[in-house]
Amino acid sequence: MELSRKDFRAMIFYDFKSSLSPQDCAARLQNAFGREAPCLSTVRRWYAEFERSRVSLHGEFREGRPPTAVNENNVATVKRLIEENPQIIYEAIRELLRISMSQIQKILHEELRVRKLCCRWIPHELTAEQKRARVEWCLQMLLQYDHGHYNAVYDIVTGDETWIYYFEPEEKQQSCVWVFENENRPTKVKQARNVGKKMITFFFSATDPICTIPLEDQKSINAEWYFTICLPRVLEKVRERRPKSRILLHHDNASSHTANKTKSFLASEKVQLVTHPAYSPNLVSCDFCFFPKIKDLMRGFTFTNSEEAVIVFNQHVENMPSDLWSSCFKKWFDRMKKCLKCKEEYFGKQ
């Protein structure tokens, strides 16, 4: 048998008339009905009501926000607000509509089915032509090199530039330590990335690393340095190892890479250039595969000068597992496939 609140109020009223104390009344109800019985504070509240000569056992109507706050007008208004300002906050919506936060949440998540996400940074706002060019390039590469299985992949030498900092701060996850129950939370002084830095170019193939070339006596790479100093050293290293093999060079569309002098030099050396779509750093194997790995290994270490930083960089290169280089090329072709699935847009980390 289920008892209503009105039934319990009648019992409380009986005990009140019988001059029982609120404590005795609550104990009697608890003994008889267990968890279904009202608590002591409820009994006291009704005793106070009966002392004020209340005779009705019905609950009083409580004024509050009407359940109609979630209506077509408010839903349409919230939709318009987030379309006009996708960064609008709950408080602003509440001030405009004068409804509770729970009602706003219901409108947003149950009626409009929206969610708030952080924007993902992208390298460039691609035009329709640039998107089309990315797709065509991926299709051409996948067909030409049989999705990365064609032997000509081993003739490709790829490379790019990056900065090496004298101090690269650790990521938060790298500073995690085990702490016992009674120990205080560990702290660590936050250090900014050191301004001292060195730019290097690094090249590798599907079988092994080729060379690391630091930029000397200048702050940025230009075409003159690239085709007179950098590329001759790269080609020399490749030909030492594979004197009879052809060389297919892949680099991105940086101005020093696409300069006419650079193209003329490569043509004179009979080096075939592997094209690259514009504004596509996520399709450069150095940028998404190799550089992040080696920079993670260098985090948290301080170097006194650029020479020391380059030496440590090269040491990490030598200690890389032998299958890393072929793995980078495999991921490169996998990214081409992902580019096609993402309908020409940029995509996040894999």
Description:
The structure is a single chain. This protein is an alpha/beta fold. Helices cover 47% and strands 9% of the residues. The protein has a five-stranded mixed sheet with strand order 3-2-1-4-5, with helices on both faces. Helix 8 packs parallel to helix 10 (260-268) and helix 11 packs across helix 12 (306-319). The two termini are 60 Å apart. The model has no long low-confidence stretch (mean pLDDT 85). Its main location: nucleus. GO terms for molecular function: nucleic acid binding. InterPro entries: Homeodomain-like_sf, Mos1_HTH, RNaseH_sf, Transposase-MT_Hybrid, Transposase_1.
What is the domain total for the residues?
3
Class by alpha and beta content = alpha/beta
Which strand order spans the largest sheet, edge to edge or round the barrel? 3-2-1-4-5
Name of the CATH first level of the largest domain = Alpha Beta
Q: Compute the CA-based radius of gyration.
A: 35 Å
Helix content: 40-55%
CATH topology of the largest domain: Nucleotidyltransferase, domain 5
Mean pLDDT: 85
Q: Please indicate the percent range of residues in DSSP E strands (runs of 2 or more).
A: 5-15%
Low-confidence stretches: none
Note the total helix count.
Answer: 13
How far apart the termini lie comes to 60 Å
Largest sheet: 5 strands, mixed
How many β strands by DSSP? 5
The CATH architecture term of the largest domain is 2-Layer Sandwich
